[in-house]
Design brief:
alpha/beta, 11 helices, 16% strand, elongated
């Protein structure tokens, strides 16, 4: 029997009890997904707090440092020029694809992501709120105009020939560990419209999530029956707040993450496993109707 063969395959690589429980919760409800860095680590993108990290997490630049200090900006853009070219080579993994499949099949109403890597959109998810922005754009802090990062990267390459191809260690959020001596050689690109200061269109530490994005995320939580947290410890307040919104509205919270999260005690279902294994199994259970 074909079904049994597929089930046997699943047994070999997933925590079936957890996945079945998850499918039972989601099969007759609408779900909003809240995703964090853990869904992108399987695409080879490092995170700040994940279980696989060796050594202390890198210290990110704050918005205030970036705006006040010319050297900080130069260092940011030097590292980002190298880090971004590596990010571009990353593709969505089975977890991202499964989330897009669940949206297409009508189980997931949308994705709120804390990630800035654009991989949900690349995987085919249609309703996506990028809570912390995207590495794919830069914004001018003086006139507000936006520039596509591919275009900006071309200008940075022209100003700093060969720079983006240097060897480095990849860090979270499109950052790269490079020697300080390289920073002094680097030339920053100004806004093409007004000559002002450009910043990647991501929410820096010390900066607030734009209000319209918060409202869009709130509405997605409000209109869904369940919130499903994927690959986030919920350390960032912007994510935890959405889970607490769901709890306040007596909506079930489901969590798939490796390692503890700040919402474990309020979770209805908690699965400790790799997303690239759990989510394809969940898609199979839900779309075959076996979760009913
Ligand atoms: Zn400008």
């Amino acid at each position: 029997m074909e079904d049994r063969d597929q089930a046997t395959v699943r047994v070999s690589f997933t925590d079936v009890a957890g996945v079945r429980e998850l499918a039972d919760l989601l099969h007759d409800r609408t779900t909003v997904v809240l995703s964090g860095a853990g869904i992108s680590t399987e695409s080879g993108i490092p995170d700040y707090r994940g279980v696989d990290r060796v050594g202390p997490p890198p210290t990110p630049v704050t918005y205030q440092q970036f705006v006040r200090d010319e050297h900080t900006r130069r260092r940011y853009w030097a590292r980002s020029t190298i880090g971004w070219s590596a990010m571009q080579g990353r593709s969505p993994n089975l977890g991202h694809v499964a989330v897009a499949d669940l949206e297409r099949a009508g189980f997931v109403t949308g994705v709120i992501t804390q990630n800035v890597d654009g991989l949900h959109v690349a995987a085919g998810s249609r309703v996506v709120v990028e809570l912390h922005g995207s590495l794919a754009r830069a914004v001018c802090l003086r006139c507000g105009s936006m520039e596509e990062r591919v275009d900006l990267q071309r200008r940075l390459d022209a100003l700093n020939p060969g720079f983006a191809e240097r060897r480095f260690t990849m860090l979270p959020d499109g950052d790269a560990a490079i020697p300080d001596s390289w920073v002094d050689e680097f030339t920053v690109a100004p806004c093409t419209v007004c000559g002002g200061m450009l910043k990647t269109d991501v929410v820096f530490f010390g900066e607030n999530v734009p209000k319209e994005r918060v409202l869009a995320a709130n509405e997605m939580v409000e209109t869904a029956d369940v919130i499903l947290v994927l690959g986030s410890t919920l350390e960032a307040r912007s994510g935890l707040r959405l889970v607490l919104q769901a709890v306040d509205a007596s909506k079930p919270v489901a969590i798939v993450n490796r390692g503890a999260t700040r919402a474990d005690e309020v979770a209805t279902v908690r699965v400790e496993a790799r997303l690239g294994e759990v989510l394809p199994a969940l898609v199979e259970l839900l779309t075959s109707g076996a979760g009913a």
